[in-house]
């Protein structure tokens, strides 16, 4: 009797503004059997119908671990994953894993020790493989956070702030076409409610208190990969290579 292929989970960890969501979506676009799930997007969508949740998100504090866990598990149901895959373009027929299963990039989970413990109780068909930590200094992530914009017309995510210092070269992330012609940037581009100086300071403190211990847990189990994206999205080839080498080394492809 054939053994059902497991769904391999890759957790993305990083400070707010480290770019993990952008890198995760771009990675998923490279591989046919890799799906990107932003836990923040899932929660923000739920917050549209839940005022209490909306207030927690805009305060910079973390949402209750049980609520996050339930939202992620629901999003990982087959029908929801198929809808998610349909929303994202895939630029290649390549597969990063050759075991016949589907594989998920989780942006934003687990980010507390309690969530890590909940993850360990998930069904055995969902296998946490590793975490990728995007190591970016505080001053750079703050600059990038203050520059984040989302277009209300085309739904695109952009960044009007660039960074060029101390070996870092991260130009603004602006539309190449489409949105540039159709949308008025001054009118249609919006900041997230939590991208303010005071809330960013709170979120950075929360990261140090809640998420850094999670990194230690991944490291202790030899499943932590640290990546320094000096050149932002121009590092995608190097990131993909590092990830493929990791799985080859650990015999997971």
In short:
The protein is α/β, with parallel strands linked by helices. Helices cover 43% and strands 18% of the residues. The chain has a 5-stranded parallel beta sheet, with helices on both faces. It has a 3-stranded antiparallel beta sheet with strand order 6-5-9.
The largest sheet, given as strand count, sense and whether it forms a barrel, is: 5 strands, parallel
Total number of beta strands: 10
CATH superfamily, please? P-loop containing nucleotide triphosphate hydrolases
What's the architecture, going by CATH? 3-Layer(aba) Sandwich
The level-1 CATH class: Alpha Beta
- What value does the average pLDDT take? 84
Task: Please provide the ordered H/E string of secondary-structure elements.
Answer: EHEHHHHEHEHEEEEHHEHEH
Indicate the percent of residues in helices.
40-55%
Structural class: alpha/beta
The order of strands across the largest sheet is: 2-3-1-4-10
User: Strand percentage, roughly?
Assistant: 15-25%
Number of helices: 11
Number of domains: 1
Poorly predicted parts? none
Query: What Rg, in angstroms, do the CA atoms define?
Result: 18 Å
Shape: globular
